[in-house]
Amino acid sequence: MSELPRPLRSYLHDLAVKDRSPGFLLLESEGELMTWGGELAFYGLTELHQGADVGDQIPMLDAFFPLDEEGMELSCVETDAGVAADVHMIPDGKRAWVLFLDATEEKQRQQTLQQTANDLRLLRSKYAKLADRCVEEEILLSIQERGECRRISVLFADIRGMTAYGEKAPPGKVFRLLDMYLTAMTQPVLDEGGMMNRIVGGSVMGIFGILPSKLPPPLQAGRAAFRMFDNVRTIEEARRGNKKDMFDISIGIASGQVFLGAMGARNRKTLNLLGPSVHLASHLETRARPWEILICENTFPEIDDLQPRFSNVRLASEGGCASLQAFSCNMRV
């Protein structure tokens, strides 16, 4: 490639570093500081010592030396002085250069975009909650004051290992992962005409047969379960390089008569369900293996085209519960 004309080189230079307070370090391959220059004081880098390890003087660089052949770039990191900087680490034979460029404008731009995204998310959440509350109020009004019996399907789903992970990982990271997985698990319930009744930690409870639908509740619940696993697969594909932060889910579904009614204070009533099907769905979920759906005998006859995916199983007695006939679908197959 021929050399660019000087005006273009000058233009590119200004485009890259003009008004960005460039500062540099020159290091030995193992990270010993040889020399430095530029506007390092802008980044709070003033007490530097020749021959000393750069990681001892600038902790943010400690993990990157010796530098590999491809170099490294850190975008919009904050120095100890509170200045946002783009940090470029460039190999040069047995030496390495570290270039600091001011990223204050980029940080401000990201903060503005993040604030806009947060505002939009809060707005969507506000109207979603308002809509959900209106639907719930209509349902509560439609249920007799003393409660009533209905035939419904109950789905329990759990993120396996999330509780143990949450005890060790940073809270912010746990929150982001939990939000990602819970969204993947709750949206199918809503899409299939169900209602979210409970979210506790990494577990969700959805109910089908309350909202009007042309489909039988067992089929709605079964379709929601399959869509949950599709969503989790999508998460796995997107996070293929972060296998330590990926989780399995398990699902239990039971169908039958339950007693439901509005309980709580007059202006804060919530929908509550009582009956064996609720406990059975929870029990099936706890007995399910990772990537398994367990459904009860009452659910299986009404899941239509999903039936071939399930096989008849006998669950041995456990924890005081008698042995149980169920149907299993291994979603890893």
Give a brief description.
With 333 residues, the protein is α+β, with helices and mostly antiparallel strands. It contains 7 helices and 13 strands.
Number of strands: 13
Percent of residues in helices comes to 25-40%
Number of helices: 7
**Rg:** 29 Å
Strand count, sense and barrel status of the largest sheet are: 8 strands, mixed
What string gives the helices and strands in order?
HEEHEEEHEHHEEHEEHEEE
**Broad CATH class of the largest domain:** Alpha Beta
| End-to-end separation | 53 Å
SS class: alpha+beta
- The dominant shape is elongated
Overall pLDDT level: 84
CATH homologous superfamily of the largest domain - what is it?
Nucleotide cyclase, GGDEF domain
The number of domains is 3
Which CATH architecture of the largest domain would you pick? 2-Layer Sandwich
Per the CATH scheme, the topology name of the largest domain is Alpha-Beta Plaits
**Percent of residues in beta strands:** 25-35%
Structural description of this entry:
Residues about 125-130 have low confidence and may be disordered. It is built from seven helices and 13 strands. α5 (about 170-190) runs antiparallel to α6. It has helices spanning about 5-15, 55, 105-140, 160-165, 170-190, 215-240, 275-285; strands at about 25-30, 35-40, 70-80, 85-90, 95-100, 150-160, 195-200, 205-210, 250-265, 270-275, 290-295, 310-315, 325-330. The strands form two sheets. Strands 6, 7, 8, 9, 10, 11, 12 and 13 form an eight-stranded mixed beta sheet that branches. Strands 2-1-5-4-3 form a five-stranded antiparallel beta sheet, covered by helices on one side. It has about 325 residues and is of the alpha+beta class.
